[in-house]
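Risk mitigation, structural track. In case the binding assays with nicotinamide-adenine-dinucleotide fail to produce interpretable data, a predicted complex structure has been prepared as a fallback.
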Amino acid sequence: MTSKIYKNYIAGEFISSDRFFDDINPVDGSLVARVAEADKLMVEKAVVAAKMALKGEWGKLPLVERCKLLRRIADGIEARFDDFVDAEIADTGKPQSHARAIDIPRGAENFRFFSDLARTVSTECFEMDTPDGSGALNYAVRKPMGVIAVIAPWNLPLLLLTWKLAPALAMGNCVIAKPSEETPGTASLLAEVIHEVGLPSGVFNLLHGFGPDSTGEYLTKHEDIDAITFTGESATGSEIMKVAANDVKPVSFELGGKNAAIVFDDADFDAAIEGTVRSVFSNCGQVCLCSERVYVHESIYEKFVSELKIRAEALIENWPEGQSAELGPLISQEHRIKVLACFARALEEGGNLVTGGGVPEFTDSRKKGSWIQPTIFTGLSEEADMVKQEVFGPVCHISSFASEKELVEKVNNSKYGLAAAVWTKDIKRAHRVSRQLEVGVVWVNTWFLRDLRTPFGGIKLSGVGREGGLHSLEFYSELTNICIKL
Ligand code: NAD
Ligand code: 6OD
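Fallback model:
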């Protein structure tokens, strides 16, 4: 029985609750911690604290001082790097190589990046003529929006929370963050780091809890929340948008995807295989950018399917702490039930199971975890659920195409529009096809290669708005234009 308790962080204090829920390790179903669920009163307290902080020391702090604090948060994460890795692994079961190379470094980098950016960007300035000949000068100033609700998912817990928290703080806002109920660990450590760094009380508040009828809903419905930034399922985004509409609150949404990987006949075959193994199976398929639809030119289709099968079957599902682990479990038993139901539906719809489709057999306590086999289907129609609906698991459907026109039509025939990966050596084709894809992000001959200055987000069901670089600063601030008659 664990004695670890994750508390809420409100107005600079760690606060428990009279209601707790379990934080479960998906590797073996063991208890990681008990988590104090924030009730309505705590949400209220956090909002009041955040509003007060805006009017107090934080609201008056020069930008350069704010940015120094953000850099110290990055240092603080790095100083406790192993603790963060352990917490992320315990909550998600992801291989430690993933947490060490991606989740935790990006958690720190998000603070450094937005601290540097906020100090160096300018705003617009326009000189204008006036009828009397004296002219006028317009310039814009950036102001914080106020109190921002940051609601995060479980797949890349620290990375995705800090991706929104860092620019929000850099722009001078106060934040109430709610991590996923599945992954409260690294957010709780982050609250400790922020406390040690000494951000004024109320600037950052952390509330644990669920979505509907719980902390998430109380937070998004609170009238004094000035903006909502959310990463998660498209259906949840739709619910939050309805609530936000009541007070016409700005929203920034990073939502689900049904991303395509496209392999042309002229692609570097080995690189395309390597890249597709990553884009389909990374984080057990639980990255919003993962490819769940793979389109391969008909001339190399059979060879590609055989090779991807071999590579999928070779992936090592092991305890996350070891060096050999390449694939972790799904986040929860509940999610595994959903993913297995998607596999069953694909078979009902006439899909050909190339590999996987079930649960790996273990003889140790991993039997109690949420493990699943890497899975490949072929032979489904473009209208099948497996080709249409997001699964969010280690699975893809591979189909062939003959022409670019057919390919582009198939890829764009989706309600989602987040990302695509294109594999080709023909530079003209790369440009031509990329521009035609109805998605927010295209990678050519790579996948999930991130430059934090670039616009990031999706179209259609995959999101509202763009974050990244200046786009984040735009969302997390309000511009006031000042027009001075000279
Ligand atoms: P989710 O929508 O179930 O939950 C996300 C967060 O929202 C959690 O903190 C949850 O407690 C909260 N929440 C749920 N209902 C709510 C409500 N009614 N009001 C307020 N808060 C509520 O998503 P998830 O299962 O945690 O994450 C997986 C999903 O996220 C997938 O669909 C994936 O594609 C998507 N995702 C998208 C991106 C992107 O950048 N586009 C990134 C990561 C994940
Ligand atoms: O890299 C990022 O900044 C980002 N937002 C990644 C999202 C991954 C989705 O699971």
